[in-house]
Amino acid sequence: MSRGRGEPTRASQALGGHDDDPGLAELGLRKGEAVRFRRRDTERWKPATVKRREKDGSVGLHDDQGAARSIPIELVEVRASGPRGAKTWEPLSARAARTEQLRLL
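The structure corresponding to this sequence follows.
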């Protein structure tokens, strides 16, 4: 039986039913999620939107001006909720490590 357009794939069903990029799901990200990045410690954080996982392991983003960027995981932060529910930013590497640990259980 063939799959119709718009139906989730087996890989996406195994990752919780999201029809996102499996590479993004490994990091705990979804397509369209708001993130921020900076290339150097001296730069300001720049807002961006997640688009895909690149072949080299980095994250493909679109910044607020529409430019496509390929940013290493270590330079990206993701919006998260703090221990008391406040909105905060979390390093993507920390989220990815936690996501990886959850899959081991």
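The chain has a mean pLDDT of 80.
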